[in-house]
Amino acid sequence: MTPIAVTIAGSDSGGGAGIQADLKTFSALGVYGASVITALTAQNTKGVTAIHDVPPDFITAQIDAVFSDLDVRAVKIGMLSQPAVIEAVAAGLERWMARNVVLDPVMVATSGDKLLAPDAVDALRRELLRRATVVTPNLPEAAALLATEVAVSETEMQVQAERLLALGARAVLIKGGHGTGAVSADFLFDGATVTRLAVPRIATRNTHGTGCTLSSAIAAGLAKGQNLADAVRDAKAYVTAAIAAADRLAIGKGHGPVHHFHALWG
Known about the structure:
The chain is an alpha/beta fold. The chain has helices at residues 18-28, 56-69, 83-95, 120-127, 139-146, 154-166, 210-223, 228-244; strands spanning 4-12, 32-44, 47-53, 74-77, 101-103, 134-135, 172-174, 183-189, 194-200. The chain contains 8 helices and 9 strands. Helix 1 packs across helix 7 (210-223) and helix 7 (210-223) runs antiparallel to helix 8.
């Protein structure tokens, strides 16, 4: 059977993040990608200039169209900007008994533009954390979910991950890309084990879409039948290579995208 994953996320008109990054990642990793669009953004490498939210009933229609026909083996969830949208997605996951759900709590674009309404944070925490196989916040997103300060040490990252587990998440991958120092370390917590994934920090401004790419790469691994630890480890290797190859591309005048097809393009 062909492995299939669906991305439930916003569209990035510049092509570097959102569903565009997710579908590129699925394809690069040998997974067929479907999509449910939750928002349209007018966006490029310099920033977001407008957001148009998709009505919740149309999001529901997209979810039902995909799941009623395709054998979806994994779900990646990205930008959900409004409480009603979050509730529609949560209901769809429940209705179709979705498996292997990777929740990327997208709140702010690489450019600094906010993508999540303040009143939607509670809905995200309440409706989706418990439905996710793994949640993948970066440091600011983890702090926002917990209404606390951004972690500044690996010890604080572990404490925040444990608090997210206590809120209902089955596993947490807390990402250290927003940290400082020569090493970028992510931590995977599942309530029983802790896995540290550390790589040298790569000096580049072309990091647009890294969070989307990592979460969709995890979903791709799960769709292919990997366990969570292996899917996360392979996804980390893939996104690290995509960042390292980002400067081979010349896209836009701001924060360019990572190179999703670094292993395929000459």
